[in-house]
């Protein structure tokens, strides 16, 4: 029998989250952002759940080819554009839309031979200071692109640094709106946090929203708002089983470094999941975990293949606990109880994004189907 660890991708949850963001985004079209192999979920595995999106946005040309292989004929956007001139051949061949964030990308496009003019998204650095043209250089970049026969349509893009926090997006929207004034074209500004927190702002909404983390069932502004506050559902469950149990007495310690000491008699369970499965090694004692759908806590240090959990609340609930009992590291237990990935991430000092992206290749993943074909 293989190790009992497994991940499950919930197609219905992806569909639900997409519908939820569609409502929040009003009349804007939605990119489903599937970079980093769909935030660790697997592009092929999320496709059914996200195919009601208006397009797929990603970074990697191989990933774009995989989306086309799935039969997707709609828009695909390369969020960072091309990395070298020959990438443009694939853009022409697969009909990829691409971001233009620097002069070199315009040079490459000007030298590219194609029968099929491209749709490009000209990116402004409106304050994030990562990719994009400054507002001062934006218009001249637009004029250069607009003069190229290789360009069919120019849209505008920027990215918010603080859509999830107190600084907000007003300053970047003002910069973007001023610099794009009277330029014709569609706009894309917001990510998940902007959609959920700021989409009543028509300028923030733009024509296209770029949805990542919320699609996968993580709250973009946790802990200010949790998953349930935004009516989102976990798209991934990481589950395993108990493969051992120990009865401790006061003073007994658990695991490497003896990080946890029992202060009285207690039972612990040993679950088949460790940092080599992608569970964060830095998750401390107290990190939430579900056993038979009952909330308890991790105790002691996470090791490569195992972690240990306090069985006290599970025994107190009267349920039988045994070898083989269900352990849910994040996601949804069989009894329907949800443990948001955000709570585990917070305990480990990180964010849901990092945990989902870090799911290890050795973990087998199954897709739980949705309710039939969607159009
Ligand atoms: C990753 C990414 C997004 C999606 O952000 P989320 O916070 O996951 O919704 C949007 N836009 C760009 C440019 C990105 O790189």
Distinct ligand kinds: pyridoxal-5'-phosphate
CA gyration radius, whole angstroms: 23 Å
Low-confidence stretches: none
The number of distinct β-strands equals: 19
Structural class: alpha/beta
Main β-sheet, spatial strand arrangement:
8-7-6-5-4-3-2-9
Biggest pleated-sheet summary: 8 strands, parallel
Q: At the fourth CATH level, what is the homologous superfamily of the largest domain?
A: Alanine racemase
CATH level-3 fold name of the largest domain: TIM Barrel
Concise summary:
Its EC number is 5.1.1.1. This is Alanine racemase. Helices cover 28% and strands 24% of the residues.
Polypeptide structure, described:
With 375 residues, the protein is an alpha/beta fold. It has 2 domains: 11-216, TIM Barrel, CATH 3.20.20; 236-339, Lyase, Ornithine Decarboxylase, Chain A, domain 1, CATH 2.40.37. The chain contains 13 helices and 19 strands. The protein has helices at 11-24, 35-39, 43-50, 61-69, 87-94, 103-110, 135-146, 170-180, 192-198, 202-205, 312-316, 341-347, 352-357, and strands at residues 6-10, 29-33, 55-58, 76-78, 97-100, 118-123, 151-157, 187-188, 208-211, 236-248, 253-254, 260-261, 266-271, 288-291, 294-299, 307-310, 326-332, 338-339, 365-368. The protein has an 8-stranded parallel sheet. The two termini are 39 Å apart. The model has no long low-confidence stretch (mean pLDDT 97).
């Amino acid at each position: 029998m293989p190790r009992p660890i497994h991940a499950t991708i919930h197609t219905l949850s992806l569909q639900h989250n997409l519908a939820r963001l569609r409502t929040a985004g009003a009349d804007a079209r939605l990119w489903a952002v599937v970079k980093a192999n769909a935030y660790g979920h697997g592009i092929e595995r999320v496709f059914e759940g996200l195919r009601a999106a208006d397009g797929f946005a990603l970074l990697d040309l191989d990933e774009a080819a995989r989306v086309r292989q799935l039969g997707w004929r709609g828009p695909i956007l390369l969020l960072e554009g091309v990395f070298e001139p020959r990438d443009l051949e694939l853009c022409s061949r697969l009909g990829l839309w691409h971001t233009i964030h620097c002069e070199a990308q315009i040079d490459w496009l000007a030298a590219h031979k194609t029968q099929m003019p491209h749709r490009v998204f000209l990116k402004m650095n409106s304050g994030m200071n990562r990719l994009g043209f400054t507002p001062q250089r934006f218009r001249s970049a637009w004029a250069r692109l607009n003069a190229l026969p290789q360009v069919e349509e120019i849209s505008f893009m920027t990215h918010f640094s603080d859509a999830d926090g107190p600084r907000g997006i007003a300053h970047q929207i003002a910069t973007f709106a001023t610099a794009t004034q009277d330029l014709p074209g569609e706009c894309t500004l917001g990510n998940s946090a902007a959609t959920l927190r700021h989409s009543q702002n028509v300028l923030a909404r733009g024509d296209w929203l770029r949805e990542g983390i919320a699609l996968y069932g993580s709250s973009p502004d946790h802990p200010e708002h949790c998953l349930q506050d935004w009516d989102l559902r976990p798209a991934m469950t990481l589950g395993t089983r108990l493969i051992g149990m120990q009865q401790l007495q006061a003073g007994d310690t658990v695991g490497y470094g003896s990080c946890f000491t029992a202060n009285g008699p207690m039972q612990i369970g040993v679950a088949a999941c460790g940092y080599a499965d992608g569970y964060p090694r830095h998750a401390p004692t107290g990190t939430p975990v579900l056993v038979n759908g009952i909330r308890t806590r991790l105790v002691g240090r996470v090791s490569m293949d195992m972690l240990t959990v306090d069985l006290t609340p599970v025994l107190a609930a009267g349920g039988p606990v045994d070898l083989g009992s269900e352990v849910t590291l994040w996601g949804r237990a069989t009894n329907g109880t949800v443990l948001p990935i955000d709570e585990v991430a917070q305990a480990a000092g990180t964010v849901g994004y990092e945990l989902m992206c870090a799911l290890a290749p050795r973990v087998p993943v199954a897709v739980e189907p949705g309710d039939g074909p969607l159009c």
